Amino acid sequence: PTRDGIFSVKSAYWLGKLGLIAARRHRYGAPNEGWWKRLWQLNTLPRIKHFTWKACRETLAVNEILHRRHISATSICSICQQYNESIPHALFKCIHVKPIWEQSEFASVLQAEEAPFLSYATR
């Protein structure tokens, strides 16, 4: 409800959004402030830090998110045409990307189930 006690669609939206955020944090854990501080202090290009931040905040323009926002006609991956193009799928799970990661030193970290990018980044 608003400050004057009126319950609106906007109030319901934000109440639901806060519940979703809390549920994700409970399920996958939330990074502490120190994690974000370390991210911004990394000795790397600003665009890499920004990309990582966007992936962790689940704001990259992948078909699953674009479809949910009614921007894309489909949520299916445009590369493999088999699965929803979530952030973990686009970055790690797609059959065209997975072989590259399997050859890297991060292969064991990426064996997890479909989870938000943040859960990969904080391992």
TrEMBL record:
For this protein, the record's Pfam families field holds: zf-RVT (PF13966)
Reverse transcriptase zinc-binding domain residues: 27-101
InterPro entries xrefs? RVT-Znf (IPR026960)
Can you tell which superkingdom this protein's organism belongs to? Eukaryota
What name does UniProt use for this protein?
Reverse transcriptase zinc-binding domain-containing protein
Instruction: State the species of origin.
Output: Opuntia streptacantha
Q: What is the lineage of its organism?
A: Eukaryota, Viridiplantae, Streptophyta, Embryophyta, Tracheophyta
